[in-house]
Amino acid sequence: MSILVFLYLSIFYEIKDDELIISNLFLKSHIPISSIKKITKTRTFMSAPALSLDRIKIECHKISYVISPVNRAQFISQLQKINSQIKINL
Questions:
Q1: What is the pLDDT of residues 13-55, one digit of tens each?
Q2: Ranges of each domain in the chain
Q3: Do 20 and 31 meet the contact criterion of CB atoms below 8 Å apart?
Q4: Which of 22, 71, 86, 87 is most buried, with most CB under 10 Å away?
């Protein structure tokens, strides 16, 4: 049980300046928000730094990330304020 709590506490997403930072126990990714092309809703079982199956897929040039922000609408709105070209398909 303590391992699950530790994993839960180690996952976070942060929008800092013009970057999206995705961090968990094993990885820390810095993604330029200008590189985000599309955000779609997904319920994939794919391994990802996401605690819920209510996930979004963030597509960049050649890579995509699956995450589950707590307040999805606010999170997406913040990204769009920085990059208004992001296509949303929820």
A1: 999 999 999 998 778 999 999 999 999 998 877 666 666 778 8
A2: 2-89
A3: yes
A4: 22
Residue 86 has pLDDT above 80, yes or no: yes
Contact 66, 48 (CB under 8 A): yes
CB-facing half-sphere around the CA of 38: CA atoms within 13 A: 10
Q: What is the DSSP string of 12-38?
A: EEEEETTEEEEE-SS-EEEEEGGG--E
Give the three-state DSSP class for 77.
helix
DSSP structure class, residue 85: T
Q: What pTM, to 2 d.p., does this model score?
A: 0.83
CATH fold, domain 2-89, is: PH-domain like (2.30.29)
Q: What is the pLDDT of residue 3?
A: 55
| Residue with tokens 């913040």, as numbered in its chain | 78
Nearest alpha-carbon partner for 27 in 60, 53, 66: 66
